[in-house]
Amino acid sequence: MFVPPGMHGLGAVAMALIMTPIEIIGKIVKPFALTLRLFANMTAGHFVILALLGLIFIFGSWLVAVGSVAFVTFMMALELLVAFLQAYIFALLTSVFIGMMQHAH
Question: What is the pTM of this model?
Fold first, then answer.
């Protein structure tokens, strides 16, 4: 199953014994890795926004508050764009990996 073409005999058996569990684990873990990456990228934007809003309380200045709120508004728009992009990439890669699992012979 996971033996390179042209490999025969004892080498093919050894390759199958070694590579089969590795390939099965890789196919199971891949969607979870994509999910974790999507979650981390979306959460990072929230932390940046909270840090920028925290500057208001640290400095206690109206000038810092105006600048911080303006930048937070920009970051929210950017975070929304990144969230849609990450969800699209996650869906695309998941469909590609599922297609590769079904078509690999």
Answer: 0.58
Tell me whether residue 81 is in a domain. Answer: yes
Q: Are 97 and 78 in contact (CB under 8 A)?
A: no
CA 5-94-38 angle, 5° bins: 130
The answer to whether 85 and 45 have CB atoms below 8 angstroms apart is no
Q: In whole angstroms, what is the distance from residue 75 CA to residue 63 CA?
A: 18
CA-to-CA dists, residue 80 to 46, 60, 73, 85, 103, angstroms: 11, 28, 11, 9, 34
Number of domains in the chain: 1
Structural domain for 44, as ranges: 29-103
Averaged confidence pLDDT in the chain: 84
Has residue 99 been placed in a domain? yes
Residue 12 forms part of a structural domain: no
CA distance 3 to 105: 11
